[in-house]
Amino acid sequence: MAAPVRSSPRRDGIATEHQRAVRRRRVLLLLGALALVLAGLFLTVGVAGSWEFALRMRSRRLAAMVVVGIAVAVATVLFQTVTNNRILTPSIMGFDSLFVLIQTAGVFWFGAAVISGADVRLRFAVDLVLLVGFGALLHRLLFGRSQRDLYVLVLVGVVLGTLFTSLTLLVSRLIDPNEFITLQDLLFASFNGIDTQLLTLTAVILAAVLLGVVRLLPQLDVVALGQDTAIGLGVEHRRVVNQALLAMAVLVGVSTALVGPLTFLGLLVANLARQLLGTHRHAWTVPGASLLAVIALIGGQLVLEQVFGFNSSLSIVINFVGGIVFIALLTREPRQ
Amino acid sequence: MIRIENVTKSYGDTRVVDDVSLEIPAGGITSVIGANGAGKSTLLSIVARLLAPDTGRVTVDGLDVRTTPGPELARRLAVLRQENSMSVRLTVRELVAFGRFPHCGGRLTPEDRRLVDEAIDWFDLEPFADRHLDQLSGGQRQRAYVAMVLCQGTDYVLLDEPLNNLDMKHAVGMMRMLRRMATELGKTVVLVVHDINFASAYSDRIVAMRDGHVVAEGPTPELMEPAVLRKVFDVEVDVHEIAGQRVGVFWS
What is the pLDDT of residue B80? Predict the structure, then answer.
């Protein structure tokens, strides 16, 4: 027996649940199609010389963008849900600045030559362990019983982030200017020259985390209503928040270790997904935000390669365009 | 039956709930009254397992609220807090549908949808069902929240100041709804209420708290006595029988 569904528009012009569902599906399909088109363009535009070589190189970069896009988007949506706040991103917890500090300290102690020449797998492992370890440590030290403690956690993250940034500034003043140039390259997110094995490893970790996250999605919808309401509706609030934060730390850790800091992208796509889909339900916003992140990364990389001829960085392209979109979004949003 | 045994809760050095033991029988409306800071909301939160007590325990139909799995308890006991600001934007129908979460885990069956529609009808929310909560008046929004709680289909319903911010008309409407929930649907309704006359007119039992203690409890007529009310509120209250109801006069 099917549930009665109202499909005729209401007289007062307010969309019914059914109309909203149709619209959501359409938006998601459109985003999927756009991502596919961009991926196709990315693989084929301006190939000169060997197609086989170009395709192999480009599909590796494409895969990296898909993996990182999804990781950043999911991490941000999770973080915003458990903190009940739409303008926070995991970067506020100091993940980005810790990554920058690790690179800077590495160059300072071992020299740029050693760091650039070191096995990328070793660097990835060190970055990953430190980032995820940092997330787990923050959480273990501070997470108590209630939502209020979550804000303490965020606040400590902010303070530590500032500390990392200051340490980075101190160390980078002590660094040889030539080495500093090498360091700068390490600090911008980049999809060029990614190791295939690392990429595979990241994809496997991402898939495992996503499997866990999918089971959490309906409960996250309830957690977004606030702690008391969630507990009242029988959700084990603390357990869900713990699992979401753990998933977030791993996702931010792998994506940052693979390509560098990109968390602003998360802020952008998480909010854009909610706006476009007109729902808070994670079964929609998580895939929506992931697709948007993939679109932004491929689009940004296309612009970077074809328009600027690699003479810029992906972070700059995305932050520039993303910043404008985000401000437009904020000014358009109806105030309550 | 809700059984509260030796429950204590302190914030810092202040004992907000001090060694309270109380039984709330199944059925009817029980109002918890008392001055600000008497510990009413804290006690309600502890019963609804939103707060952990420092000592003591609470059972609902024999189930310990601290150890019973969340979904199982959520099918017996629903709670509505005073503050319900949400960071997500929901329509009335979406909000009410969340009441079915303990039963369906987020996947609404046709039966769940029917119950959602029923709860919306019950509270006359049909005209606003597809509107967002921030587009409603305070009274409509409050009804939507109570509709969600009703939709949870529990035997026990706990409400923390459901009349907060409601005008006369909506407050009366809300109390009538709660009365119907108790009488027609056989639910046990426990609410924290500030207005002793609403408590007097609509509840079967009253629990009076002061400084973290239960100072009096029993059937409504026994509690609506000047001596009892003076002890609870530290205010002289004349009680008059008007149109078959005990009315406390305390304004002058």
Answer: 94
